């Protein structure tokens, strides 16, 4: 009897409430206009002035570049926040794991170069077709996580500056560009029309490296310079 | 623009350099932000409301920034509380992992600069998705600041805060998604003009208000606040109680008057007001029952947040009375930010000095640490709402609008809350002023404290009285671009 | 029923499943997963609403919003997982105890250098998979 009451309270009641909420939400979604309302027309009109031909990239880096600046700030914030917790690093680089699973090492050796290439391609194509810094950065991060797991790369305690620079690189370049637009007398983040493409390309490339590095650092968790490690196998 | 860019630059440099350097960089950043905010204030005073199209793209395509009296007043509040907290933090001894080593307390600076960025982003934004991004930076940095203390209590409180905050963000984001898919714009004013009364906008209103109420700790969604604010390091508690809950409250205010007036009915306003009223009483009563100093002040924050939400029913109808209630509510946020931050800073000093935050260990502190006790007293006068503090003016405006609009029950709650507030402030003061033999404060166990921490708390507390004197020009500033 | 409504229904379902999981499961890793599921529901709603008319060009703004939302949610998740490890180190369980439970009475002190061995346990997928929150000590 007691158990039944407990289940009622912990599972059925929340289930009931969530169902009621879901019905409200469904009603709201169905009530949305069937014809798209949005900013498609505005984006299409200004797309030729944005410096790129992929509308999503134009929105991300130009029309709503300010949101993207803040989003890169969130990534750096995540690194600072995770480091401030002083967690113990994940035990990557154990020779035992790698020896027990030869498949991993072999596969990573095959995959990593391809993934890095794909990351570069996705970033590059982002100005015209689906792709861009975030997609490229995620692939790069995945490659780095694989390399970390297979202990082909390692994060060593003495790397204070390089890793910090990777973490702030994206934000720093973005801030410099943003500050630069103000200094030359434009609106904040208003790229000069004929340099927009070049600026966005620089931004995309730097962001890819920074996003990839940041995500890998988040995976690693601990502060590199204070973490103590066993000797790592660093071929590659 | 500079009020947003400057703290962001500050984060980069504080992150790259070690502790001593980080504090110095922060002070440089603080001065630069002060100048930027002063410049913006002058602009708004001279030319009225300011709009700014980021990237040169006009809204709705681009993101619009908007500065009116309300934004500027919130920026000023952030600058004053932020500057004194920064000075305080320089003299504060951080606990937590690796306390005392080069990294102990080091992370405070970049996290605090992130928090400041988020606050300024929110106060200047006129775009609902941009507000969401600002809100996320705010939440993540606030939680990380709580867990910086490193004690089990702070870690657990931080986790609870994180989950509550994350859930609030998701509710907000879902609301934003519904609004955009229904109206095709993210800019606040055009969202307001396109608002139709239908299930999607109704649910969006509910989700956004619920998410923000959870983050602002409106009763009964306040459960996460007392442990988080009480277990954090003293400068962090000051920032959280002083600024973070104000930022989410500002968002409620902004969206309520700019986006939702078409569908926000008096009934919804009454619900918010009623929750605020219960919050005042509940928070005050629980504050009276606390045995620990910081928890008491944290519950007092729950009570004071209640006053802010009285603004909604009292300002209904958008008349002259409504304007009084609106100004009173905003002025209350401003004075509470300063007073509560000062109270947390002063008690933080005492808690560090005594090594305990039990009320019973307080006797004798007035002789050994007179500056901190004075700071708490002055801040306490404001929390009670006695003249000539700024809190008195704010409560007076709320009280008169409650009586003039015929909602006398809110007037009763305001008075009762003030009485209860006096109760818990005196409960602390009487212990501080007690002369008891063999008190901790007189023993060798009590640690010496730095003058920086004591003076910064006192300065901020005294500033609350300045707010009492300068209310007329500030409320005039507030009315630039007011929704009435 | 239009294509958008099918996707809309799916996104409502995904969000609700996430919300239910968030409320019901005490294990912190499950709560964090539930939040990610809820975000996915919102993202699906945004992306499908961007292409309500199958013949028109999809609206790029929701796509950009979703990308931003994903980055934010990755950051939050990373921090939440790291914090979960600290919670386990501090209290011995990967769940939040009742509000009034004395946190100080936790079995393991949160000394930074001492918690490494306990962290290995929560990092163990088997332990995280079990519904009970108590980790064998």
Q: What features would you describe in this structure?
A:
The complex is a heterotrimer of chains A (236), B (484) and C (137). Chain A has helices at residues 2-30, 40-46, 55-63, 65-84, 95-100, 102-125, 133-149, 160-183, 196-220. By secondary structure, chain A is mostly helical. Chain A folds into two domains: 1-32; 46-226, no CATH class. In chain A, helix 3 crosses helix 4 and helix 4 (65-84) runs antiparallel to helix 8 (160-183). Chain B has two domains: 1-264, no CATH class; 266-484, no CATH class. Helix content of chain B is 74%, strand content 2%. A two-stranded antiparallel sheet of chain B has the order 1-2. In chain B, helix 6 runs antiparallel to helix 8 (199-216), helix 12 (293-314) runs antiparallel to helix 17 and helix 13 runs antiparallel to helix 16. The longest helix of chain B has 35 residues, at 320-354. Chain B is globular and about 70 Å long. The model of chain B has no long low-confidence stretch (mean pLDDT 90). Chain C has 137 residues and is an all-alpha fold. Chain C has a single domain (3-129), classed as Orthogonal Bundle (Helix Hairpins), CATH 1.10.287. Helices cover 65% and strands 0% of the residues of chain C. In chain C, helix 1 (3-24) packs antiparallel against helix 2, helix 2 (28-49) packs antiparallel against helix 3 (60-91) and helix 3 crosses helix 4 (116-123). Chains in contact: A-B, A-C, B-C. At the A-B interface, helix 1, helix 2, helix 4 and helix 8 of A face helix 1, helix 4, helix 5, helix 6 and helix 8 of B.
């Amino acid at each position: 009897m007691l158990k039944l009451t407990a289940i009622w309270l912990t599972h059925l009641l929340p289930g009931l409430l969530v169902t009621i909420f879901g019905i409200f939400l469904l009603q709201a979604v169905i009530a949305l206009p069937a014809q798209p309302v949005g900013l498609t027309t505005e984006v299409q009109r200004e797309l030729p002035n944005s410096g790129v031909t992929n509308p999503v990239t134009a929105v991300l880096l130009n029309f709503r570049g300010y949101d993207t600046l803040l989003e890169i700030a969130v990534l750096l914030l995540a690194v600072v926040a995770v480091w401030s917790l002083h967690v113990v690093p994940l035990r990557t680089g154990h020779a035992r794991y790698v020896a027990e699973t030869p498949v991993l090492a072999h596969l990573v050796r095959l995959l990593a170069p391809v993934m890095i290439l794909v990351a570069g391609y996705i970033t590059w194509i982002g100005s015209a077709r689906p792709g861009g810094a975030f997609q490229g950065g995620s692939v790069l991060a995945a490659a780095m996580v694989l390399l970390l797991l297979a202990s082909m790369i390692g994060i060593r305690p003495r790397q204070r500056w390089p890793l910090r620079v990777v973490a702030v690189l994206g934000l720093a370049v973005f801030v410099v560009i943003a500050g630069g637009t103000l200094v030359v007398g434009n609106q904040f983040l208003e790229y000069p029309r004929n340099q927009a493409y070049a600026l966005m390309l620089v931004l995309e490339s730097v962001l890819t490296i920074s996003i990839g590095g940041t995500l890998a650092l988040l995976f690693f968790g601990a502060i590199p310079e204070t973490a103590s490690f066993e000797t790592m196998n660093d071929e590659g | 623009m500079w009020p947003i860019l400057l703290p962001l630059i500050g984060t980069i440099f504080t992150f790259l350099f070690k502790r001593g350097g980080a504090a110095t960089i922060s002070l440089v950043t603080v001065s630069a932000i002060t100048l930027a905010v002063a410049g913006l204030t002058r602009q708004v005073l001279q030319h009225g409301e300011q709009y700014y199209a980021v990237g040169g793209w006009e809204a709705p395509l681009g993101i619009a920034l908007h500065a009116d009296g309300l934004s500027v007043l919130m920026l000023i509040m952030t600058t004053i509380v932020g500057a004194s907290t920064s000075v305080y933090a320089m003299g504060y001894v951080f606990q937590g992992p690796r306390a005392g080593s080069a990294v102990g307390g080091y992370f405070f600076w970049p996290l605090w600069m992130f928090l400041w960025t988020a606050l300024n982003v929110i106060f200047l934004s006129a775009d609902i998705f941009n507000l969401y991004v600002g809100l996320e930076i705010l939440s993540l940095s606030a939680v990380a600041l709580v867990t910086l203390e490193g004690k089990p209590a702070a870690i657990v409180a931080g986790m609870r805060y994180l989950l509550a905050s994350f859930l609030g963000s998701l509710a907000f984001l879902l609301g934003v998604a519904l609004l955009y898919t229904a109206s095709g714009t993210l800019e606040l004013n055009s969202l307001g003009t396109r608002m139709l009364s239908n299930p999607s906008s109704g649910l969006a209103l509910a989700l956004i208000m619920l998410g923000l109420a959870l983050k602002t700790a409106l009763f009964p969604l306040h459960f996460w606040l007392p442990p988080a604010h009480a277990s954090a390091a003293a400068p962090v508690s000051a920032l959280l109680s002083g600024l973070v809950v104000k930022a989410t409250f500002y968002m409620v205010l902004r969206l309520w008057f700019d986006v939702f007036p078409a569908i926000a009915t008096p009934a919804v306003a009454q619900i918010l007001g009623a929750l605020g009223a219960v919050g005042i009483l509940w928070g005050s009563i629980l504050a009276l029952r606390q045995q620990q100093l910081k928890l008491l002040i944290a519950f007092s924050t729950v009570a004071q947040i209640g006053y802010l939400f009285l603004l909604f029913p009292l300002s209904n109808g958008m008349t002259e009375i409504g304007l009084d209630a609106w100004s009173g509510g905003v002025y209350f946020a401003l004075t509470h930010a300063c007073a509560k931050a000062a109270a947390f800073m002063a008690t933080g000093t005492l808690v560090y000095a005594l090594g305990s935050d039990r009320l019973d260990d307080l006797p004798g502190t007035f002789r050994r640490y007179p500056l901190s006790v004075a700071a708490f007293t002055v801040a306490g006068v404001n929390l009670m709402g006695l003249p000539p503090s700024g809190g008195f003016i704010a409560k007076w405006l709320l009280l008169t609008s409650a009586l003039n609009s015929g909602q006398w029950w809110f007037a009763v709650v305001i008075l009762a809350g003030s009485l209860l507030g006096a109760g818990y402030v005196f409960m602390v003061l009487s212990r501080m002023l007690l002369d008891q033999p063999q008190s901790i404060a007189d023993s060798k166990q009590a640690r010496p404290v730095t003058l920086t921490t004591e003076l910064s708390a006192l300065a901020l507390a005294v500033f609350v009285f300045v707010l009492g004197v300068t209310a007329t020009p500030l409320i005039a500033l507030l009315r630039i671009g007011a929704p009435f | 029923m239009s294509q958008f409504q099918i996707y809309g229904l799916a996104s409502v379902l995904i969000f609700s499943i996430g919300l239910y999981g968030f409320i019901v499961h005490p294990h912190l890793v499950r709560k964090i997963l539930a939040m990610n599921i809820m975000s996915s529901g919102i993202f699906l709603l945004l992306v499908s609403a961007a292409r309500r008319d199958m013949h028109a060009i999809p609206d790029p703004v929701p796509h950009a919003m979703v990308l931003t939302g994903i980055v934010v949610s990755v950051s939050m998740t990373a921090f939440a997982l790291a914090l979960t490890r600290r919670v386990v180190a501090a209290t011995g369980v990967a769940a939040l105890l009742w509000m009034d439970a004395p946190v100080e009475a936790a079995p393991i002190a949160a000394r930074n250098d001492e918690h490494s061995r306990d962290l290995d346990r929560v990092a163990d997928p088997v332990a995280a998979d079990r519904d009970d929150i108590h980790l064998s000590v």
